[in-house]
Amino acid sequence: MSSTLKPGLVRLSVVASLFLGTLLWTSPAAWAHGGGGSGPSCAILEKSGYAVHLDIYVQASPGSAALSYCQDVPATGQLVLAFDLITDDLKKVPIAIEVKDSSGNVVLREPARKYPAGVIALPGQFSKGRYVATLTVIGAKDPKTGGPLRFDFVVNAGSTGLLVAVVPWIGLGVAALGALWVGWRVARRRSEPELEQSPEKP
Predict the structure, then answer these.
(1) Are the C-beta atoms of 83 and 123 separated by less than 8 Å?
(2) Mean pLDDT score, 100-111
């Protein structure tokens, strides 16, 4: 009884194993933000030639690496809103920050000041609900409204959106079924007797 496997089956087994291992290594929480990395995966707000990007960070447990999200965050409690001032000119002007809950109550406020490093880290306590974080650029006007130039970011704390709650588990299920199928094929192949080939006649 031969245990020789076809090269195609071996490749399929290796690919399925690597795929499953990657999914198991990547937690469902990290899937909410493209693998937990920050960057252009989240939306960038642009107005009047200025651009701002927001990441929301959550520390799952003390000593663990923080996970980053866009506007939908499955966690509540201590969150850190990290604004990236993409346009260099925004680093030279004062910016005021205000965060309101769905009832219009101000839950966080930072007075206007300059952020020459181009990063604004705003920690705060968030209960489940919808919030709007507003950055006001002092001295700049919105050409559409004539009022102060503002960037409004929506934050949904305690969100259980489809991508956060469902998609990772579907991926894990499909990968597990694929790995089981490959294992069954390998076992079946090994159990089948290999027919001996008769020598070719001269």
Answers:
(1) no
(2) 96
How far from the centroid of its chain's Cα atoms is residue 167's Cα?
Answer: 12
pTM value? 0.61
Q: Determine the residue type at 68.
A: S
Residues 202, 199: Cα–Cα separation, whole Å: 9
Question: According to CATH, what is the number of the domain 35-165?
Answer: 2.60.40.1930
Euclidean distance between CA atoms 90 and 17, whole angstroms: 47
Q: What is the pLDDT of residue 177?
A: 73
CA angle 96, 102, 108 (to 5 degrees): 30
- Domain-by-domain residue ranges, the chain? 35-165
Token reading at 189: 């192949």
Q: Mean pLDDT across the chain, nearest whole number?
A: 76
* Residue 127: closest CA among 75, 192, 178, 171: 75
Whether 66 contacts 58, CB under 8 Å: yes
